[in-house]
């Protein structure tokens, strides 16, 4: 009897020990799982000198801290008054100067441009160059203590649904330095825009779409991945009462292909076709124009005139022809024609498809240099 009680006591002790060990293992394992689930690395870096950051339950504060001092508010002064504001970011620091990227429409018409730093200091900038079709401008400022340059990434390495964020100055000075997060909602979106602030579109931009909050004043700011690499330059948003959360950014790869020219203060050389154009839809809707357009043709561009000495003048094109394709790509209107045309360079030979007297023809055109 005594022996059986001793055995029971030993079993109870052993059970407690085993139970304690199992409890420790389970609890420690849960802690490990919890730690692993609440802390994860950011996206794979897309630039060689990128520092990977951690995204955890606190959000992307590490990434924001990494870039915050490289984003500035921009003031556009005209006639000694602030005409508009926007955002820009430092993309390069060289010798005693920093180079800031922004939108051309942010600095358009400025007599003077100043930038507000993250330390709330106002510095004067020099606009080196800009282009309305790319909608990018470069500003040079003197280097100051604490300034940082943002790393340029690669939008092609991002996927739909990836977390993105921006830092900017929505609605001006009062809300400068605002952080907005969202997702990459779309890639390769084609959006018609006006480059001269008119009501009609004359250019098509291929852009990234995000649902991050974009407001007036964010223009020119960086769209970044969770490592703080710039994948695009904020350019616009759809402003309609029924639209919510549709902002757009110019892919950084496209910007990179033009930035060196703008930094040097040189004009981007766009190819010249050599025709004046009227949209088919406009020609049909107005009695001003006396062009014969078949009823079944609802898109394309009517050749309203041809400039002497250009590629168009040396082709088979005539006034009244309706251009419908460039190298097989549909031309919906003049904005899309420019979009397709500006994929090429002066001296390139392209094939135009056009309608004349209801019949379809093609002709070769050697693109000229713009004046």
List its salient traits:
Thrombin, subunit H; 20% helix; 38% strand; 6 helices; alpha+beta; Pdz3 Domain; 371 residues
Overall average residue pLDDT:
86
- Termini gap: 112 Å
The proportion of residues in beta strands is: 35-45%
- The outline comes out as elongated
The H/E string reads HEEHEEEHEEEEEEEEEHEEHEEEHEEE
Number of discrete domains: 3
Based on secondary structure, the structural category is alpha+beta
| CATH architectural designation of the largest domain | Beta Barrel
Summarize the biggest pleated sheet. Answer: 6 strands, antiparallel, barrel
Detailed description of the structure:
The protein is an alpha+beta fold. It folds into three domains: 71-142, Thrombin, subunit H; 158-263, Thrombin, subunit H (Beta Barrel); 271-369, Roll (Pdz3 Domain). Helices cover 20% and strands 38% of the residues. The protein contains six helices and 22 strands. It has a six-stranded antiparallel β-barrel. Strands 9-10-11-14-13-12 form a six-stranded antiparallel barrel. Strands 16, 17, 18, 19, 20 and 21 form a six-stranded antiparallel β-sheet that branches. Strand 4 (81-94) and strand 5 (97-102) form a beta hairpin. Residues 9-18 and 20-41 have low confidence and may be disordered.
